[in-house]
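How a chain folds remains the central question behind the approach discussed here. In the encoding step, the backbone of a single protein was reduced to a row of integers, each denoting a local shape. We regard such an encoding as a compact summary of how the chain folds. The sequence in question and its structure tokens are set out directly beneath this paragraph:

___
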Amino acid sequence: MTKSESDLLTLLGELDDPEWLEWPRDYNRSQMAALFGELVARLEDDFTARCTAERDTQDSSEYGRVVVPAEATVCGTRIVVCVSKFGSLALICADNPGAFFGTEDAQAEGALDAADLAKADRALADLGYLVLPEELLEHDYDGPSQLPSHVQRPSWWHRFFGTF
């Protein structure tokens, strides 16, 4: 079931706890690592390619990233899947977060194939991740947490995928 933008923003607000910036109160590092390992294996199988992965990112609310190499995609643009330490939140990006305004923009510019996006989206959904649109995460952050002072214009991206 696809959630509306307002439902997703409500969920982000519910996950936001100013006492727990880097990870949620109920964070379980070993469970997160196991699930992330399953995601990497699934993407490698689905794209029949070796994916690189960064895991257990320090001083960040992002757990890690999986990179599907450009040569494994229809359009020849790598796919980056970012996973937050909060609520199994995930993000799918063409090339890199912020390289496009979102997946629709990347598709319109010919950088992301719909079937490749569907593969990544299906893998995440099958493993229980909630995929957030990149455009949604660019909304101004209006929650109660005190985000780092180095962030000029705080967004929901900074809250759930940023560094501290």
Remarks:
- The first helix runs from residue 5 to 15.
- The chain has a mean pLDDT of 95.
- The chain has six helices and five strands.
- The beta strands are 52-54, 62-68, 79-84, 89-94, 130-131.
